[in-house]
Amino acid sequence: MSDAPVLRLEGIEKVYNRNLPSEVQVLRGTSLDVAPGEVVALVAPSGAGKSTLLHIAGLLDTADTGRVWLGGEDMTDLGDRRRTRARRGDIGFVYQFHHLLPEFTAAENIVLPQLANGTDPGAAERRAQSLLASVGVGHRAQHRPSAMSGGEQQRVAVCRALANSPKLLLADEPTGNLDPETSETVFAALLTLVRETGLAALIATHNLELAGRMDRAVRLRDGTLVPV
């Protein structure tokens, strides 16, 4: 494992409703490094700011102060076009709800982001089939989301997040909407794919048992990160 971080957050601060009576400082000088091949658990209760932190790390939101580095490149002050390109090719996202496109099949949901990134259609289809097979839902490749269980849909969402071979995976409570047995299946599939590909991963969860199976865990408390 290289010591050079895939993700580096330096002194991230974020305030909502600044200078209003409802002002809330969500992040207070938050810093974090995630190395290649490292899986880090982000532990925090609802409302603590973990989604805000993930959105800033994933270039979906901007910090008031602080810097975001991805793969050694300072992304903080880049324009929208470059940030969009990084989100499309270098970052994979998994959310609590799968957000699959209902009118497309499982395979098509994984092919589409690859086509948007310039991948050859044949290669995109082969990768989709390979990813689906690796998480045990290859037989569902031609099914639409409505024909799949919640756990199957979430495994497809994991495959979609990894479709473009990103450097970084960000997951926000990826098993939070599932029953315990299905949660275990989805988390095991997610962890296996991350380990096999060697990418960096930051996974938000309130489940301490799942957090304990990652390489390390950090807790978001009062806007800063502390070891668990």
From TrEMBL:
Give GO cellular component annotations, separated by semicolons: membrane protein complex; plasma membrane
**GO-annotated molecular function:** ATP binding; ATP hydrolysis activity; transmembrane transporter activity
Q: Of which family is this protein a member?
A: Belongs to the ABC transporter superfamily. Macrolide exporter (TC 3.A.1.122) family.
* Coiled-coil intervals, chain numbering: none
Please tell me the species this chain comes from.
Answer: Palleronia aestuarii
Tell me which domain of life the UniProt entry assigns to the organism this sequence originates from: Bacteria
State the signal peptide span.
none
Annotated keywords: ATP-binding, Cell inner membrane, Cell membrane, Lipoprotein, Membrane, Nucleotide-binding, Transport
* Biological processes per GO annotation: lipoprotein localization to outer membrane; protein localization to outer membrane
Classification via InterPro entries: AAA+_ATPase, ABC_transporter-like_ATP-bd, ABC_transporter-like_CS, ABC_transpr_LolD-like, MacB-like_ATP-bd, P-loop_NTPase
Q: Which taxonomic lineage is given here?
A: Bacteria, Pseudomonadati, Pseudomonadota, Alphaproteobacteria, Rhodobacterales
User: Residue limits of the ABC transporter domain?
Assistant: 7-228
Q: What is this protein called?
A: Lipoprotein-releasing system ATP-binding protein
